[in-house]
Amino acid sequence: MKKNIFFLLAFLIIAISSYSLAAGSAPKAAPGAAAPTNTDTPAVTTTLPRKISIPGWGPKTIADIVENVGDAVVNVDVVKKIRVSSPFRNFRGNFGFEFMPEFEDMFRDRVVPQKGAGSGFIIDKKGHILTNEHVIRGADEIKITLKDGRKINGEVIGRDASLDLAIIKVDAKNLPALKLGDSSKIRPGEWVIAIGNPYGFANSVSAGIISATGRDLGGLAKKDLIQTDAPINPGNSGGPLLNLNGEVVGINTAIVAGAQSIGFAIPINDAKEVIDELIKEGKVIRAWLGVYMRDVDEKIANYLDLPIAEGVIVLEVVKDSPAEKMGVLKHDIIRAINGKKIESSSEISEMVQKMKPGDTVTVKVYREGKNKSLKGGLSEKP
Question: Annotated catalytic, 332?
């Protein structure tokens, strides 16, 4: 009896296992064979993430770029001679130096050397170095230090405060030069490298990304700047901002006090437009209109009882300027220049900057309820 029960239980277990295998499992396909399909159940497709490869990118990319082009980045050390007045100068006439001549120097003004430092980079084999204008402003002596240790006297041969650019010339042989890239092709998110002389630490390298383009820092009179989170500190000014091809896409120029990971650079395309002129002429020859102006807002429109808050109001007309000669008056509202509608003062600045001295300009102004058309020639900016 017990044997019969044991065989019955064994038979039931085998039967149940066979049924489960037949109903819920399918045999695996052999390697290379097509998997069996089930017409009753929809197929599930799994999409794997696409692997993105970056040509030329690797753990040593930045180090390779710095090794290849870093020799063209220089330190710019300047000395400014500052006159310091003696606190005793008002007592000079009451002191008898004939009896105590050793004290005479105490009553004289002194010239004290004030040192400063920045960065720059060589742009050609002739020894031309591009840097910021504010780095060399007021400098009486300029010393250029190359990465190989050579120290060379430098001479400023061109400068432009509007773009904050300057050209220094050095007389030396076997100079490396950086290749100038195209800043119009850069995009936020791209990797960039900054090389310079922050706080006197020569040939320092930092890296980051382009945070934004087209930034406008009105307080610094700079526009269309590149914003980057690559660390830029005092002393980096004038140094290059490089892309991953080792090309210069910007000139490091400014940091925002108190901010972190926010630096700015002048687009290299802006510099390329004026480099030849700075070398040949020593300056950028620009046209000039000669007005101080401000955008018209609701408050100004209400105060002057204007029909609409648009255009640019003239706050002051410079004496003997092209604007004065063509008849522009204080509180005129500039509505258009050369037929183009004006919405902001920055538009006027950009339009005039692209013109040349001697060019004719037509200015449409709104004055005392009437539109007037004024015409005249631009002159060179003093």
Answer: no
